[in-house]
Amino acid sequence: MTKSEFRYAHHPEDVKKYTTQELRDHFLIPELFKKNEINLTYTMYDRYIAGGAFPVDKKISLEPIDDLKADFFLERRELGIINVGGKGKVTVDGEVYKLGHREALYVGRGNKEVTFEAADGEQPYFYLNSAPAHKAFPTKKVTRKEAEVVELGDDKYSNKRTINKLLVNSVVETCQLQMGMTELKEGNIWNTMPAHTHSRRMEVYFYFDLEEGQTISHFMGQPHETRHIFMKNHQAVISPEWSIHAGAGTSNYTFIWGMAGENLDYGDMDKVAVDELK
């Protein structure tokens, strides 16, 4: 079963007036994984879709949602999948791809049937991102060994981290979808700091591997008018193109960044010095 909800885009002047609950209602995706379901959020920011597939004891299929007005989900779209749980299987038009923990799969436009299931008695958590596609590229699995890896940050500033570029144009051909995974080292809490914006693309952050009972404060908004949303493990948040996207946790964690827009250059960003944030 595939379920979805719809989110509109927002003007930054309007967001300044939002209450805490309004911010959460419009930007937080609180529950992605429900037993034997696919749960999706369709946002008008670059028509991006983020969600989760959680097959527990049966195979589940990615069905076209009403907002797409399509005969099948990938009729005009591409799909990125990263497994943040145990071993699982993704079948794309009859071809089976086994995904282990933190492995990724790119599925190109035009594939008609995509299904998810558990494997070897383990429990997978498939995190999904999708964007409109103008061309069909081949489906490709990407392991952690095949990712482009970058080490950033410093213990002094509590932001030492490893960036794993999984579904990016230097690793796999995509139309506009880009996805990767950033791991915070133990004792480090700040991600994406110094902060930045990129007006040529939007982004979604998905937080996981957060210790039970801990929390993450995700910072958003224009650099001179920031807001925050407190988040739990396995939650995602939408970041508009005009917004910074940074977070600090009460312990270390891992997050997946996914983005879409008109530029595939990972370094396309407008940086904001930490002492300029307000």
Automatic annotation (TrEMBL):
Zinc found in the keyword field: yes
Pathway stated in the Swiss-Prot or TrEMBL entry: Glycan metabolism; pectin degradation; 2-dehydro-3-deoxy-D-gluconate from pectin: step 4/5
One Pfam family cited in the UniProt record for this chain: KduI
Gene Ontology terms, MF aspect: 4-deoxy-L-threo-5-hexosulose-uronate ketol-isomerase activity
Recorded catalytic activity of this chain's protein: 5-dehydro-4-deoxy-D-glucuronate = 3-deoxy-D-glycero-2,5-hexodiulosonate
UniProt cofactor note: Binds 1 zinc ion per subunit.
Keyword terms of this UniProt record: Isomerase, Metal-binding, Zinc
Entry EC no(s): 5.3.1.17
Family annotation (SUPFAM superfamilies): RmlC-like cupins
Chain residues that bind Zn(2+): 196, 198, 203, 245
Cofactor(s) this protein requires: Zn(2+)
PANTHER family documented for this protein: 4-DEOXY-L-THREO-5-HEXOSULOSE-URONATE KETOL-ISOMERASE (PTHR38461:SF1)
Stated family: Belongs to the KduI family.
Known function: Catalyzes the isomerization of 5-dehydro-4-deoxy-D-glucuronate to 3-deoxy-D-glycero-2,5-hexodiulosonate.
NCBIfam families associated with the record: PRK00924.1
The protein's name: 4-deoxy-L-threo-5-hexosulose-uronate ketol-isomerase
Organism the protein comes from: Christiangramia antarctica
